[in-house]
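retry 2 of 3: previous attempt timed out while embedding NAP. Reduced batch size to 1 and resubmitted. Inputs unchanged:
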Amino acid sequence: MKDPFSVEGKVTIVTGGGTGIGESIAREFAARGAPVLIASRKVENLERVRDEIRKAGGQCEMAQCDVRDAEQCDQMVASAVKHFGRLDTLINNHGASITTPTLQLSANGWRAVVGINLDGVFFCSKSAARQFIEQKSPGAIINISSTAGVHGSATMLPYGASKAGVINLTVSHASEWGSKGIRVNCIAPGPIDTEGAAPRVWPNPKVKEMVAKSRALGRFGTVEEIAYPCIFLASDASSFITGALLIVDGGQSPATAE
Ligand code: NAP
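retry 2 succeeded.
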């Protein structure tokens, strides 16, 4: 009997797959037999992860891609199809932020963050959906938003706003593409201790402790704790789930839950 939770053979693109959460998603999918293509701007990170996944026996290719450029997103999908013959899952994990108060935030700063977080998800999703429809076999899209997209962020305004846009885009795309069998879901992580997030969001031990205490579970999440729900949402076990938002944040502590 086929395991409904399996992602074996499911061709998967992971944007931002050279670091942090994306790296873990790529490793966990490849370890379960999914051919994986990782994509981002920095080739050195992609090469390291690709080589390590291959060494561990997984299938991995890479594509240099700036998700702000629609053509590069098309090429990223084409590259996955060239290497593996098809596409089954797109994981829009890429993301960026700056911590600047609104009155000091330039138009360029705003546009840079929204361009990566929101335009990037739109371009990659469009390229993937076109491929799903052409190959006449539905696929799954998983968008990585943030709890800042649910609650807002006073210190990272364009980040919160663009991540809220990702949640909205998820519901709209799920609705638009449901008749084609394409499922689109969203995960909103809470604090996950990665090298990318740490210097911006918990720059010193005192803030780090406060963030941990703000969670009902009293700790940060691990990168695997985001990768595992991605496996569920890519697998047939979630075949009737689309347009959903899964908040993975360790819960709110009693002090912050009011
Ligand atoms: P990270 O290591 O900084 O990951 C961000 C990734 O996005 C990098 O691999 C980066 O690769 C890629 N990226 C940035 N701009 C890009 C662009 N223009 N084109 C293509 N790729 C681009 O941080 P992380 O913590 O693992 O975050 C992963 C995702 O989780 C992000 O969407 C983030 O918003 C979300 N998230 C994280 C947390 C947390 O606490 N860590 C909480 C909520 C949500 P390159 O620099 O090579 O392009």
